Amino acid sequence: MAILSADRRYWRWFLIILASGFALRLAWALAVQVSLESDSVVYDQLAWNLATHGAYAWDSGDLTAYWPVGTAFVYSLIYRLFGHSPEAIAALNVLIGTMSIALIMALGRRWFSETTAIAAGAIAALWPSQIEFTSVLASELLFNFALLLSLWAASAVPIRSWWMKGLLAGGVLAGAAFVRPTALLLPALLVAALLWTRVADWRAITRFTVAAIVTMAICITPWALRNMRELGAPVLISTNGAANFWMGNNPDSTGAYMPLPGSVAELSEVDRSKLLGDRARHFILDQPGRAALLFANKLLITHDRETIGVVWNEGSLRPALGDFGIKATKAASTAYWWLVLALGCLGGFSLIARAGWRALYCPALMAWGYFAFVHAVTVGADRYHFPSIPFIAMLAGYALTLARRRRFDTLAVGRA
Question: Number of structural domains, the chain?
Fold first, then answer.
C-alpha cells in the first residue's frame, strides 16, 4: 500500500506540474502576439516557401541549405494546414513545450528518482525563457523536444527489441539533427543513457547502437543527395557550421555573433563555408593563446545571462511594458537562470562526489558538457545554452532532492 500510495503521489504531482506548465504557456501565447524578430524572420520565410512552392529556398528563389531544414519544415506543415499564421506556430510551441516537461519528468524519474523528477518538472514548467519562447519562431523548443524524445525512446520506451528501440531512437535523433546538426554526434548520449540506467548488456547496446546509427544514416542520406544535386557538394545537413565556427574564431571575434565579411558575399554557400572554415582553423593554429581566451569567453557568454526570450519578443512586449518593464523582465529571467544554474552546478558536483567516475556518463552531465563545449569551440550566446536546459533542470532537481533528504535526516536525528 505504501508503494501504491507513493506512486499515486508522483502521478498527482506529474499532472499538476504538466497542467501548470501548459497553463502558463497558453496564457503567454494568448497575451503576447507573435513578433517576427531576427531568426524568426528567416524561419518564417523558409517555411512559407516550403509550404507554398515545395522548395527550401530564399524569396529570391535560390535553393539553400545554409540553415538546417528541420525547423522550417515543421513550421511549413503548420502553414499548409492553417495558412500563414504565426499564431498557429505559437500553439505548436505550447504543445511541444508542455510535452517536453513530461519528458523531463519521465527521464528524471528514470535516471534519478521520482522526487528529482517532480522537482525538475516544476523547474522546467516555471522557467521564464521557455515560456517566453512560446511566441517565438525558432529552433530551440523543437530541438529540445526531439532530443528528449530520442532519449526517452532509448531508455524508457516499453519495447523489448533492441533493434526496434535503436530504429525508433535513431529516427527521432535524425529529426533533431535536421533541426540542429549538433545532434549528429549524440548516439553516444543515447548509449550513455543505457549505461547509466543499467538496463542492457553490451550485446543489447551494440544492437541498439548499430540500429540507431544506420537509421540516422538512412534518414539523412536523401537530404545529403539533394544538397549534392543542388549545391554540388556533399553537405549532410547545412552549410552554416563553418560560418558559426569563423564567428567565434577570427582576429576580430568577441566570441559572439558577428556579420560575415563582405569578401564572401558573392561566393556560393559551399565555397563560403570552405573559405570561412579554413580561415578559422588557420586563426586557431596561428594564435592558440587568443583562441584559448575566446574559448573561455564563449563558455562565459553562453552561461552569463538569459534574456533572449525577452529580446525576441520586444516588438510585442515594449508597447505594454515600456523600457523599465523590458529591463525588469530581462532581470527576472536572468535571476531565475542564475538560481537554477547554481543548483545545477551543485547537483552536478554532488553527483560526481557520490557516483565517482560513473558520473562521467550520466546523460544529464554528459549532455550539458557536450553543448557547452560545442559552443565554446564555435560561437557563444545565451540561447546556445538552451539545449542544456532540460538537463540542468534535472541536476537542479537532484540538488533539491539531496537537500530535502539532508533536512529530513537532520529532523530525524533531532527527534531521536
Answer: 1
